[in-house]
């Protein structure tokens, strides 16, 4: 039986490990932190339980497909609730729209704000459902090892027919004149790490995921997914070593032969590294074994970093819903500060997540759990003073929105930003969620799943295909494991 070491126990590492073990390999996962989950770990204090990273459960079909492969339905592993409203958007001037769940209610909302937009919405959903299905049934699951995998005249013809050979921003405005309706359908591509102007309309599949497939929440918190993935992996025979950082990948005769850790060397027939690609190449491999130099990395568009606040508050949050997007300041100005001319934004956009609205188990009885996220440029110099300045700015707007003071009721507070991402994950420029899915960084143009310089060394995770987010990271683990299993079986 071949032995494989998987570095990292986030979505990608867990998915890779379970698939490798199911394919007959003896698998050991080596993780630097004391708990699994990576960016989806948890932090608890004084009865509050915070999910450190992801909070939007989208594309439920990806998770269903994953767990089915190991003999489970999702409802046998955790309880999913569909949120309705899916989320709230606060616009300039302070008025707010609740975005309802379900296509009929959404159609009504669009028609209400722009006569004729209901029909345009139907057409938008029709087109984006096509691209979502193509991705789900095929493209997302291509390992992208060569350009020829992506040369598909049928898809290219379809993209031209659907007028998707343009930016997401442009595509959204071809359906809706009302600027807020256009914003509503384009914002989901922000999950892919670049602005709607820089992202291909092909990724409108994210809008379909939002509007047609819905926003869900696993009761108990997002880490319930991680617990389920660990359980499935263990049932396949995967062994875990937590609290064990990998310092080096051992390469002998041009092949990966194991990993070096402070407690000693672990040997294997192959290594699958799911830690950040840049960290693995720069910090865990000797210079002669790297595929990419500093010049390559300096030209990549990383996803933004984020300033996060984990807050425990005494009492409730008034009318605040589970997810609220504060688009009440100038979005273009904020995007400029994140992508074009990196700087601390003067009037930041932000996102507030209050899971205790849906799930009382994440806070002491009667209290509230609040997570705030402010996108910042990757590579921005971190500063405690700036963290605090932004905290008070966004809390003021939140207090204005809910109509009551909140800061005086904060009993637990932790902030997290660039320096923390670097320290916890070796994240290049302190990025939060990998490399942006721009056109120049899609499919075979991303760093590959299989090393071109070291035999038996494979990669997975949000810096390789298909891209950032829980579902893509999970898929990348599966893809990398399949390519590695093929090699082990001599194909
Ligand atoms: C703040 C935030 C909000 C997000 N929101 C959402 C959301 O709402 N919905 C969504 O779908 N996605 C969201 N994402 C993105 C999603 O969380 C990530 O894309 C996904 O979790 C990445 O998984 P991964 O396995 O690729 O990487 P990681 O989770 O980073 O896993 C890599 C693992 O490798 C370990 N590791 C690193 N170096 C070493 C080493 N030297 N030795 C041993 N182990 C090592 C790390 O500790 C980590 O456990 C968010 C991300 C962040 C940061």
UniProtKB/TrEMBL annotation:
Q: Which InterPro entries match?
A: Amino_oxidase, Carotenoid/retinoid_OxRdtase, FAD/NAD-bd_sf
Q: Name one GO molecular function term.
A: oxidoreductase activity
Domain Amine oxidase residues, every copy: 11-484
GO BP annotations of the record are:
carotenoid biosynthetic process
Q: Which domain of life is it from?
A: Bacteria
Alphabetical keyword list:
Carotenoid biosynthesis, Oxidoreductase
Q: In which pathway does it act?
A: Carotenoid biosynthesis
Query: What is stated as this protein's family in its record?
Result: Belongs to the carotenoid/retinoid oxidoreductase family.
**What is the name listed in the Swiss-Prot or TrEMBL entry for this protein?**
Phytoene desaturase
Provenance organism: Persicimonas caeni
Question: What gene name is listed for this protein?
Answer: crtI
